[in-house]
Design brief:
Helix content: 55-70%
Shape: globular
Oligomer: single chain
Number of strands: 0
Largest sheet: none
Order of helices and strands: HHHHHH
Number of helices: 6
């Protein structure tokens, strides 16, 4: 398998770990430590800043999980932590935009739910990981395409509340 395909697969694994860690930790901890990241604040438009489903616990879970997974994928642990943190930053950005568009917390917005979460870490880390534009595009598009089936599988097996 060419190196770019291996790198693409490894990055997809890290992004999937970042995406699923908050959900897994929510299932394990239930309502413990689920303080909303925005503290319930509302933006000047009167809508929630991020929404109740974006928690400190979720950001920490994604960051720690990718930190632990990265060495298994051949990346330094700090790179894994950066992928998790940046992925969650992309997720928070999409949540902010979704609230402005009137989409409720945990509401579906295909593309907006996936692209920032995958693209932000890839763009920020492109130089340190030596990512070519084609790899960035491939990882982002594959993450977009695979997130739906993974979410439906997770819902069928009781990990997610919704299949998206």
């Amino acid at each position: 398998m060419p190196d770019s395909m291996v790198l693409t697969a490894k990055l997809l694994v890290l992004l999937t770990v970042a995406n699923t860690a908050p959900i897994a930790v929510k299932r394990l901890l239930c309502d413990r430590w689920n303080a909303p990241l925005d503290g319930g604040l509302r933006f000047f438009d009167g809508k929630p800043l991020l929404g109740h489903s974006k928690t400190v616990r979720g950001v920490v879970a994604a960051t720690v999980a990718t930190l632990l997974m990265a060495p298994l994928m051949g990346f330094p642990a700090p790179t894994g932590a950066a992928v998790g943190l940046l992925s969650m930053a992309g997720d928070l950005l999409s949540s902010f935009v979704k609230r402005r568009l009137g989409i409720p917390s945990s509401g579906k917005a295909t593309g907006l739910d996936q692209v920032p979460e995958a693209l932000l870490p890839l763009l920020v880390l492109r130089e340190s990981l030596g990512l070519a534009p084609g790899v960035i595009a491939a990882v982002t598009l594959l993450f977009l395409a695979l997130e739906g089936p993974v979410a439906r599988w997770s819902c069928r097996h009781g990990w997610r509340d919704t299949p998206y």
